[in-house]
Design a protein that fits this description.
Keywords: Cell membrane, Membrane, Transmembrane, Transmembrane helix, Transport. This protein is mainly α. It has a single domain (3-402), classed as Growth Hormone, Chain: A, CATH 1.20.1250.20. The protein has helices spanning 3-7, 9-40, 43-52, 55-70, 73-96, 102-130, 133-162, 169-186, 198-212, 216-247, 251-276, 282-302, 305-333, 339-364, 370-402.
Amino acid sequence: MYLPLLRNKNILYFLLGGGISRLGDALTGMAFLFLAYDLTGSTVHTTGMAIVETVPYLLFGLIGGVMADWLSRKPLLIVLDIIRIPLVLSIFVLDHLHLLTYSHLLIVSFFIQTLGCFFNPTHRAVLPIITDTEERAAANSFNDTLGRGVTILSPIISLWLLSYGAIYFFVVDALTYAISVFCLFQFTEQIAPVKKSVKGVFLAIRDFFAWTRQQKAIQTLFVFTFIVVFFNTWVWEVGILLALNEMTTNSEELYSILQGVFGGTVIVTNLILPYFIKKMNLKIYVFGSLVWGLGVSYYGILYQMEHFFIGIILVGIGLPIASLTRVYLLQALVPEHKLGRAFSSNAFLLYLSNTLSLLMFGVLVLIFPVQWLMIGSGLSIFMFSLLCLAIFTIRQTKFTRRFSINPFK
């Protein structure tokens, strides 16, 4: 199934470029949290760093989708990766000059994520163009395997780098972006010219949301994703690290190992899934979220080191099922000329959910224990998914009559 993709150099270099770039993103994300905690020793400041990573998507996420639909995507991807290189290196340089501050970390993180507002929807929008319909499930799986698989490489690299200091993460980050630029230079693309203007940006956004109002399946997908991500974000990005800080003095190393276990589970799930499921639907998406919520509930309730590993494995099974299904449905239900806006709108809602989650749970953690918040979040995901699965099953016949592309079968 995957060998034909690997023989196609256009697809191969495109996927490798995006995967390597995401390796840089993963290392950067961990490094910002590690350095924020090392510099301040504050859970509030660490949560603040995580919030800053979401704000750009609320400000520029939708505009990034329009640019992905308008501009030649290959040059855009290359330029965005090139700009990221000096940004991450500036942190390394300032640290060695003993000038690095928490505020500088916030500023650089903001700009890195702003560039991601344009990179991510552009990268997602290219894949349906350079693949055939028959290749798409395997291509999505391979793409997600590379993206999620960096969570195996990043902990291995991070454990090595932590022996020297978290600051060296940013040197490796710069190298991954440079390699990504080389890979992205190798693939070719074609895009039809479109009429562009500043006013047209907002008209294009309005046009997409007007179209979305007529697409009940897309609306359902967006709303469900928003709710599930809201209950997961703080737990995954901050809660686990804080829980490990309560349990051990080697929290950063164990956090990296947990990320590696998660990445390995995701890779296996991604590679196996296309052999069993050829056509994905909303019920499969909800089932993945159900398993995802079960994993969060498991390590929240038992709250011991060994159970964190088991819970992470369950999350590593459920999350990629939901993620791959969401991407598949967007590609199936959204016209090609709207794909960039579809993925950026999805990202906008995700990061809005992320921001609200980090803000609310960042306050709640000052009042309630981390374990209570984990349990509440996990059970909320699980029970909401179970309820939606029951509703979708009951209403399946009704939705089948209303959609030419049935999202349930």
